[in-house]
Amino acid sequence: MLPEEAATEELATEPGGSLSDAPAAPVELPAVLEIPPETPAFARLYGEPLLRMPTDLFIPPDALEIFLDAFEGPLDLLLYLIRKQNFNILDIPMAQVTLQYLKYVDQIRLHNLELAAEYLLMAAMLIEIKSRMLLPQRVADDDLLDTYDPRADLVRRLLDYEQIKLAAYEINAIPQLGRDFTRPSLFVEQSNIPTWPDVDPLDLQRAWLDVLKRAKLTQHHRISRQELSVREHMTSILRQLQSARFVEFADLFQGQGGVPIVVVHFVAMLELAKETLIEITQAEPFAPIYVRLAYSPA
After folding, report:
1. Most buried one in 7, 58, 71, 160, CB count within 10 A?
2. So what's the pLDDT on residue 14?
3. Is 143 left (phi over 0), alpha (psi -120 to 50) or beta?
4. Cα–Cα distance, 199 to 197 (Å, whole number)
5. Region (Disordered) spans which residues (predicted)?
């Protein structure tokens, strides 16, 4: 008897013991078809190798579509065929170019019929140019050959298109924001940012001038009282006239000060004229006015 069988039998014979307390016998798992380790993985999914093709994988019909060289239009394809074979664009060999162009159009028709419509129009134009070149040249009335080239319009369009395409490449080579570079961004604490008034400086200047104008209108004026004596000014005028025979009217008011003093000085002169102590004379109209002492007979 094996040791494992003996231990199981002893456990079953002990009082209070049961077969349920015995350790379970090892369970044999069904055999799994193992893949030979030398089988190569045909793909990886999330880093794990795939050794066999999934049976529930759905592949859409257009998933394995073959993409041909992408061209922006019939002129782009035609220019590509000419430049690839180093043909002279001013002397295009229409037979070779038309044949290569039609082969490419046949490939487009198998995959995208709507896209092929535009290319078919150019193919018809190429065939027309080729057929016109096969016709014999006509002689004009003046026995000169008609030198018109059926390829002239096509050559002009190709040259214009090539010039625009080169300009587009140069523009595309210019660094663009978001594609070639990004603007640097820097976090700045809001409390450290100086806040300036969002007002135009000229508008602020006009508003300040309006405030000053209103302030000048509302300023306080202090009026002081000045006592002036008419008699004193009368005496001053008499003294001034005693030293000169005639004094011009304006000269009497020189050095008198402000407006109140001049007014009192003028009133004093009128009082002297009223009392016939002085005479105010004028030789003719618009002539200077003179003031002199009144003539008193001896």
Report:
1. 71
2. 43
3. left
4. 5
5. 1-23
- The residue type found at 134 is L
Residue 293: CB atoms within 10 Å: 17
> What is the DSSP secondary structure assignment for residue 199, as one 8-state letter?
S
Structure tokens at 169: 């490449």
Q: What burial class does residue 145 get, using C-beta atoms within 10 Å of its C-beta: 0-12 exposed, 13-18 middle, 19+ buried?
A: exposed
Strands of the sheet with 278-281, listed across from one edge: 247-248, 290-293, 278-281
Q: What is the mean pLDDT of each run of 10 residues along the chain (298 residues)?
A: 42 41 44 52 76 70 51 85 86 86 81 73 86 74 58 89 91 88 78 69 84 79 79 88 83 79 88 88 84 73
> What is the chain's length?
298
Q: Is residue 249 within 8 Å of residue 265, measured between CB atoms? A: no
